């Protein structure tokens, strides 16, 4: 993925700003975006979830699998940054139905929130972990990133749904 410098700077500025807030405020922001994602997925059928707009692109199921896996990865990064106990690795989600992936998404968020709830507000804020596009992030910035990530993939799912060949319910 290539991200224009201006967009990268904008996201980093947002993450730094959000990372200056207390954890419950950040959690409120990421939970709002997650509700948007789960609402969008609520009406998607299995057939629609498996639809691929064109070769080499992702299906909605691929997107959901990615979002859940990335969130589990973020939970491990946050735990490591804050010197907390990292959550266990999840089972492989390849081949799961959309219903199973919705549950995986819910479990990944619960795991992330469990890690965050166990941290103090100032738990090693100086510790950073590199993000491939946005540079070194603190645990609070990684937490805020979940909103950006969900939002990006909400747009991706909406684009899939606008495809002329997308199966209609």
Describe what you observe in this structure.
The protein is mainly alpha-helical. It has one domain: Four Helix Bundle (Hemerythrin (Met), subunit A), CATH 1.20.120.450. Helices cover 62% and strands 4% of the residues. It is built from 6 helices and 2 strands. The protein has a two-stranded antiparallel sheet with strand order 1-2. Strand 1 (129-131) and strand 2 form a beta hairpin. Helix 2 packs antiparallel against helix 5 (98-117), helix 4 (60-81) runs parallel beside helix 5 (98-117) and helix 4 packs antiparallel against helix 6 (139-161). The chain starts with a helix and ends in an 8-residue tail after the last helix.
Helices and strands in order:
Layout: H1 5-19, H2 23-41, H3 46-50, H4 60-81, H5 98-117, E1 129-131, E2 135-137, H6 139-161
Antiparallel strand pairs: 1-2
């Amino acid at each position: 993925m290539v991200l224009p410098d201006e967009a990268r700077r904008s996201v980093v500025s947002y993450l730094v700003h959000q990372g200056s807030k207390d954890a419950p405020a950040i959690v409120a922001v990421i939970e709002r975006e997650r509700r948007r994602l789960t609402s969008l997925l609520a009406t998607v059928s299995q057939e629609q979830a498996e639809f691929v707009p064109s070769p080499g692109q992702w299906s909605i199921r691929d997107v959901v699998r990615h979002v859940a896996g990335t969130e589990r990865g973020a939970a491990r990064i946050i735990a490591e940054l804050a010197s907390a106990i990292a959550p266990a690795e999840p089972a492989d989600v390849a081949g799961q139905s959309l219903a199973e992936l919705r549950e995986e998404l819910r479990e990944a968020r619960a795991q992330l929130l469990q890690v965050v709830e166990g941290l103090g507000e100032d738990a090693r804020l100086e510790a950073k972990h590199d993000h491939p596009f946005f540079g070194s992030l603190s645990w609070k910035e990684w937490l805020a990133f979940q909103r950006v990530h969900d939002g990006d993939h909400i747009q991706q799912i909406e684009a899939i749904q606008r495809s002329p060949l997308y199966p209609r319910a």
